[in-house]
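Input sequence (297 aa), recorded before submission:
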Amino acid sequence: MVNSGNRGSVSSSVGGTPAPEPRQGMPSTGSPGLDWRTNFRPDIPSAARVYDYLLGGKDNYPVDRELARSMMAKLPNVRTAAQWNRAFLQRVVRYLVGEIGIRQIIDIGAGLPSVGNTHEVAFDVARDARVVYVDHDPVVLAHGRDMLQGIRNAVIIEHDLLEPEAILADPVLTKLIDFSEPALLMFLGILHFVSDDADPADLITRLHAPFPSGSHVAISHATSDATPEVRDVGRDFDRATEQVHIRTRAEVLDLAAGLEPVPPGLVWLPEWRPDPGTDMPGNVTESYVCALVATKP
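Predicted structure, token format:
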């Protein structure tokens, strides 16, 4: 499914040249014992690289492009939906940093960098903002570290969403994040890769628990409520690095239990606080993803 956590490529990747075929010596399908979390596996589709391809990026491989094209055949608007995901991220950051005054952001499931990354949008509004990216994909981490070299108040750390206490205890994070101040925790395009057994609502609660009232959570999540084919696409990810767990809009709203939705509440991606003068597309349900921002009372 669309993974808005992915950020494209380190350089401005839109329109770039596709990544080359795996070089000699890289792991291949003949190395099934190598874990993609610790080894580069260009033979297994990656959610981050698939999304990179949908955005027009270059950091993807033949298996990623094959899966993405399968998505496009079943969900014809998926490339536009990927752009809507990016635009949602940017509107959320501009609103919460610019209008609400949030100055610290934890972006979980950051994905590959691209144009208009979270820290870039935040710094455009307030240079004293601080941003911590969290991911566990080795390729994402390598690109993220390269992107953030020499940039103050923006870091990337290696952790799994399933271990919230480890994220919060990371010394790189605690050096930048003040738990006595409100924060924005972003879960964009990441929670539909978390199974019900892992209890994503509980993971969100544990992550925002140390932060005070006025903190916010932003969620974008795939749903098949308006387009049943979304579930078919979800099954395509059974052979990818991470599997998809499609939820209804009601179930997505339940992920923010105990928090207060920020108007306009749970909506389709283009409907969340569109920029002034924006013409609302007539096919908003073909974003295949619902969006929600909620605040801690």
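Checked by second reader. The first strand starts at residue 104 and ends at 108.
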